[in-house]
Amino acid sequence: MNKFKPILLFLATMITGGLILFSYLTFYREYEFRNCVAQLAKELNINPDYSELVKHISDSIYPGMGKEEVHSALRETAEITVTKIDSATGILERITIKICRHPLNNFDLYAYYTFGNKLKEVRIENSP
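RESULT FIELD:
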C-alpha cells in the first residue's frame, strides 16, 4: 500500500487542481461577468444587460471618427489596451476593453481605419 501512496496523492492533487481550474473557467467567470456588467451599467447609467452594454459601446463610436477620438470614447467606458495589427488595406487595431478581471470577460474590438486615421468599421469579437 505504501508504494501506491505517492500515486494516489498525485492523482488526488491533479483532480483537485482540475476541479479548481474548471470552477474558475466556468462558475467564477459567469459570476464575475454578471457583477461586472451590473457595476459598469450602473456607472454608465444604462440597464444592467449585456446587450445594452454592447449597444452603448457601439453607439459611442462611429465611422469617420479619428483614432484618438475612438480611444477616448472607449476609455470613458473602461480601461482599454490597443494592439496595432499590420494591414495592407488600412490601419487595423485590436482594442481590448477591460471590464472584468477574468480575461475571457473582456470585449475585443477590431477597429479598421483609413490611412488618414479615420474609422471605417468596428467589429466586436470574442465577447463574453
